[in-house]
What we know:
The structure is a single chain. The chain is of the alpha/beta class. The chain has helices at about 15-20, 40-60, 80-95, 110-120, 130-140, 155-170, 185-195, 220-230, 240-245, 290, 300-315; strands spanning about 5-10, 30, 70-75, 95-100, 125, 145-150, 175-180, 200-205, 235, 250, 275-280. Strands 1-4-3-5-6-2 form a six-stranded parallel beta sheet, with helices on both faces. A five-stranded parallel beta sheet has the order 9-8-7-10-11. The two termini are about 40 Å apart. Its EC number is 2.1.3.3. One of its GO terms (molecular function) is ornithine carbamoyltransferase activity.
Amino acid sequence: MKIHASILVMFSNYKGFYSFMRHLSNDCGHKFIDTSELCTSEIHDILWTSLDLKARVKNHSLGKPLEGSTVTMLCSCQSRSDNLLVQSALQALGADVLFMLGSRWEQYKFKKDIGKFCSLYSDLVVAGGRNHNSLCQLTEGTSVPVVNIASHKFAPLHALGVLMTLQEHFGRLTGLTLGWVGPMGKKLNTFICLLPKVGIHLKYNCSPTPNFPASPLVLPVGTNFCKTFNTRIEAFSDPLATITGVDVIGTSKHKKETQKLELHMLERANKNWIFFHILPRWEGEVSEDVFNHQNSLVWTLHENIKYTVMAVVLRLLKTYRPILVKPNFN
Length: 330
């Protein structure tokens, strides 16, 4: 992979640039910035492709399917680990990577112009930032596909990595119950929109104060999906009640001691429970004996997120047919 770290520059000082860029074409390529519009079969196909790519990488038979393609990364200083993960995925596919220098692209007023500029030099744009609306504005200006690394509202690549890990471990998705004990925000929002479509029930505790349960931003959307797919989303004010009877326990970084996961609490879960944590972590969210437990799939998950990134990018740029027999997700 060729890394061109200095080809693209932030261009706010270029006189007349914005007036020029606003006259370019406004055609918009396919975007992958959340999972709300994905149907069940599309989710299954992405997971199938992810599993296939993992198998082919392991047996050194993948080659470089995106050799000759160029991807621009709008790097986010808030998540260097995600940037590294995405860069590794693009390298495995053989794509050339352009870095937009200056990670604070969201501060620029004309975000559509940034999208148009990136489209001149790229076959695909991978972006992440604090504000999801900024990402939406960026996609309005692009004429190539856009993939969301993570915004404040959604983290689709992480959630797909979780589903891939569950499919590998359980051999199915339908009928599982996932318990989320952690913060509101992009991860929980994405699970609410994604899990019902693949038959997974969701229990969550995202309020550190028992008497003041919080309601995620996209809950009405998830509730409608539950009606369509005959699944459940339930909110709990107590972490123990959230964990009771679940197959999967998940969290991400936070500093709320009232939500800390301890090993004795997981006795409430189903016998063959598994645990995942979307990194990085702080000290407050999980004990060491849970994080390092034999049932913890933290590191498997973060390897698998790489393959879901590869699958999403490859499917946006190429016609790809997996060699692996399609799994049974039910």
